[in-house]
Structure formats: structure tokens, C-alpha cells
Amino acid sequence: MKCFRTLLFYAxxxxxxxxxxxSYSEEEKKGWLREKIKNRFIxxxxxxxxxxxxxDLQSKVEKSGTYTFSFMFEKQVRYYIVHVPHSYNSKIPxxxxxxxxxxxxxxxxxxxxxxxxTISKSESEGFIIIFPNGISPFKSGKxxxxxxxxxxxxxxxxxxxxxxxxxxxxxxxxxxxxVDQKRFFAMGMSNGGMxxxxxxxxxxxxxxxxxxxxxxxxxxxxNPKTAISILHIHAxxxxxxxxxxxxxxxxxxxxxxVTNFTSVPDTVLKWVKLNQCQTTPTKMLKTAGAFCDLYSxxxxxxxxxxxxxxxxxxxxxxxxxxxxxxxxxxxSTAISATDMIWDFFKNH
Length: 348
Fold this sequence. Notes:
CATH architecture: 3-Layer(aba) Sandwich
Helix content: 25-40%
Structural class: alpha/beta
Strand content: 15-25%
CATH superfamily: Alpha/Beta hydrolase fold, catalytic domain
CATH topology: Rossmann fold
Strand order of the largest sheet: 1-2-4-3-5-6-7-10-9-8
Number of helices: 10
Number of domains: 1
């Protein structure tokens, strides 16, 4: 009887809603529903608490483990996660990797080993990995973005100094941990990959190499002081950041706010020129569902490498989509982006 009353309540509510909507046009109905869903979603996001984080950036980190830190930057609290592998020895300089989440993600998603397998890679290879959190409209840090030039979201619109944020994280990390300052690397997914390109443009004297997965170079100003190695991984059928340039149909928000993304070929050509590489690549890998081209003989012995998968859409090859729905394509298994990225980093 209780179930029947519940069903009757919802049936009546739906009937009332449909009756009230009959007086509106189809476009007005769609707009009303979208606004209703949006408001409910925002309310739900506002309920999530802020991350639990330490503000003690003076004490040394002596033990392995996963730590969350925060500090004030540009008049707001910024967060980041640091994972220190079990092999860490405070007497030995250790390589350091930054891993940037995609637009609409956050540090907890990017650090989830189920999705990207970077924590397990940190453990097996013995490098420290940092997962910064981008600019978010919520205290929880969720739905965050990076100011990577012409993309993305609130970080771009507010002109967030995300390069300055990275510098500040580095300043604290160098004090807390024994990191090898000759082996700093950056990688990222989508908007996070774009952020890695911005670091390549502005801090090539700090980072030895960067890797971008499903995120092209959309920087506004790029005048690197020195050459830097670049690895780009992208699916040919990416439906967000289109391989040949532009934003895919997957974007349903205001088109005026969506970046006309740089194409993969233009991104690679840009860095081949900036690094003064030989313009004819060498085929380094050709396997079922993927290939890799290497541009070598570059300035200062750096390299530019492009790896392309036939399938996978907008995803991290060898990983798992954080928000993968039943209608979304699974990541390509032809290559492992995480394995390929670390192999590239350790050789540079």
C-alpha cells in the first residue's frame, strides 16, 4: 500500500508538471527542463564538503603514502595530492611527475588508480607524483578546469595564474621532499594535457618533458626559452577534441564558450618547428589499432613523439573512463598511455 501511494504521488506530480508545461512552446519546455536539471545539479555539487587537507607545508615528508595539501593562492584555497612511493629514500633525489586532470574533473579523479593506473606506476618505477586541482566553482574542488590558453571554463575566464600555482607547489615540494630537479615532468588528460603544453611553453627550463593525452596545444603565447621533449597521444575518433581540429558534438553547452581546438597535426608541427626537429618522422610503432611517429634530430637532443589510436574516443588508452556511460566508447587497449608516458619520460 505504501508503494502504491508513492507511485500515485509521483504520477500526480508528473501529470501536474505536464499540464503546466502545455502552455509553453517546445523550446521553452526544453529550456525550462534544462534549467531545472542544472539548478538541481548545482545544488547537489554545493553539498559536497571541501577536501580534507593539511596546511603544514614546512614539515618534511619522510614516509611513503598519499598526502593532500592546500594553501592560499590568488585569494582562494588551492589543493593538490602528493603520492610518495614505498621506495622513497629521503637521501636520494627522486623524479617528480605532475598529473593534471581533465576539464570538469578534479584531483581525486586523476589520482584514482582504477582510471589511470598512475599510482601503481609510481610504485613500480619509484617516482613521486602530484595531482593538482584546478579552478572550481565549488568548495569541494569538483568540476575544475585549467587556464591553458583558449581553454577552459572558469579558469580561463578568470585568467587564473595556473603556471604560478604550479611554481608554488614546486617551491613547497622541493622543501618537503628530496626531488631530482633535473627530472621534473608533466602530463595530463584533455584540458590537463593542454595545461601541460602551457608548462612546455612557459617553463621548459623546469620540466624535461611533457605528455598530453586527448588535449592539443591551445596556448595563446608560446615562446619557450629552450627545447623540451613532447609526447602527444590521441584517438582518431576523439569526439571532444577533434583530431582534425574543432570541438566535437559532445559539447552541448553554449557554443560561443567552447574552444575551437587546435588540431593534432598542427600541434605536433608547431613543436617540431619550435624544437627544430627533422620534419620527416620515423615510424616507431605500428600495431593493431595504433601507431607512433617519432620526430628526432631536434635541438638539444629533445624529441617529439605522436601516438595515435584508431578508437577509444576522448579517453586515456589502457585506462578506464571516470564517467563512462553505457553508450560511451571504451578506451583503446592497443597501447597503455601510462606505460608509454613513463617510458618517454625516463628516457629524457
